[in-house]
Amino acid sequence: MAAEIVNPRSESKTGDTGGEGGAEPLESIDPAFALHRGGKMAVQATVPVRDKDDLSLAYTPGVAKVCSAIAEQPELVHDYTWKSSVVAVVTDGTAVLGLGDIGPEASLPVMEGKAILFKQFGGVDAVPIALNCTDVDEIVETVVRLAPSFGGVNLEDISAPRCFEVERKLQERLDIPVFHDDQHGTAVVTLAALRNAARLSGRTLGELRAVISGAGAAGVAIARMLVEAGIGDVAVADRKGVVSAGRDDLTPVKQELAAFTNKAGINGSLEAALAGADVFIGVSGGTVPEEAVASMAKGAFVFAMANPNPEVHPEVAHKYAAVVATGRSDFPNQINNVLAFPGIFAGALQVRASRITEGMKLAAAEALASVVGDDLAADYVIPSPFDERVAPAVTAAVAAAARAEGVARR
User: Are 365 and 337 contacting, i.e. CB atoms less than 8 angstroms apart?
Assistant: First the structure.
């Protein structure tokens, strides 16, 4: 008889107060704790082990035949293990949501959440891996050694500017997709929403001047993707103002950013850059003064994506903007990474892509934008994460782009 599998959350927890000295249980303070009791995910077998015959096939001696075959033909690992359908969700806990550097253990609820979103929205299995190291080379070496077990690596909540170097070095060392979702997932969804906002207003991306608040992981990636997509111009502002070639305080990443953005040569503050701008994209937090929003061009777009407090509150933004988007689910046009990363990885894994290219990301954005179709409206420039058309559309587009760019291996 097979052993019974018990969900830890279903077990009685009598006497567990959630604190010392009979303190009030955390579950009674906030229902989020009840949902997280025992964790949000588990490992589930895909084959039965009901008797000795099943056991002999699933484990010894049957497993030895499969191991030997893979040893002789390593590519068989994709057919006879889970490798080609599983992603490692890797973090060092240094930039977790809006909580900052809270460490690997405290990051696990987020990484578990990311893993279940992979499964729910993309049909992709994912394993949370929280690393107890923050040095770039230590992270890279650790992930390289773990890589044989996985078909892809999703980097998550690693602080900038280290995240750029970690991703670059892993892409150089590994022949599987490596994708930093805080950068590229955000950029894909932002571009998709901006494409539709432009279409709604009868304009093209090439006619728009955008200003991005935030020169971290998301801001840099969004700027790069908008330039790749043909934006008219884009300037990026950090805490000290617009990133421009004339500044002498730029990191190497920001020096590179200055080289391909801000064709207009704008200097000074974010507020100054917004005067006459067509698009505001916020990925930094803080508050943008209402006067600065009012100075934007007529028919502007405001994408204020900081959570939980947008840089421009939607009530204020709607006074001046034709399209308003946020990162929150309680307002229309939520810019949510879950619209991108499940389908991107599903498409890459489907064709056993060796990496995720710029073309694959642009294809994902185009496919995501196309889901809206003829239903396009000011309060609907991006689909809901629960729209069942999203993941299949993104998956198919990414797989096709991988084949077109020569990185697909099947």
Answer: no
**CB hemisphere CA count around 310 (13 angstroms):** 24
Strand pairing partners for 218? none
- In three-state secondary structure terms, 247 is coil
Q: In this structure, what token pair is assigned to residue 99?
A: 């909580």
**Active-site residue among 13, 40, 59, 80?**
59
Q: What is the pLDDT of the chain when averaged over all its residues?
A: 93
Cα distance between residue 224 and residue 230, in whole Å: 10
Closest residue by Cα to residue 92 from 40, 141, 148, 39: 141
Question: Roughly what angle, to the nearest 10 degrees, separates helices 162-173 and 181-200?
Answer: 100
13 is known as an active-site residue = no
Work out the number of other CB atoms within 10 angstroms of the CB of residue 66: 15
- pLDDT for 11 equals 43
The pLDDT value recorded for residue 97 is 84
Q: How does DSSP classify residue 4?
A: P
Is 114 one of the catalytic residues? Answer: yes
Name the pTM for this structure. Answer: 0.90
* Four-residue CA torsion sign, 157, 158, 164, 166: negative
Provide the pLDDT for residue 25. Answer: 81
Residues of the chain with pLDDT under 50: 1-20
- The single residue of 83, 114, 169, 361 carrying the catalytic annotation is 114
Q: Which two tokens stand for residue 348?
A: 């890459």
Backbone angles phi, psi at 119, to 5 degrees: -70, -45
Cis amide leading into 308 (omega within 30): yes
pLDDT of residue 22: 56
∠ CA 202-203-205, nearest 5°, is 145
For residue 91, give the nearest of 71, 74, 109, 72 by alpha carbon: 109
Dihedral, CA of residue 155, residue 328, residue 261 and residue 195, to nearest 10 = 100
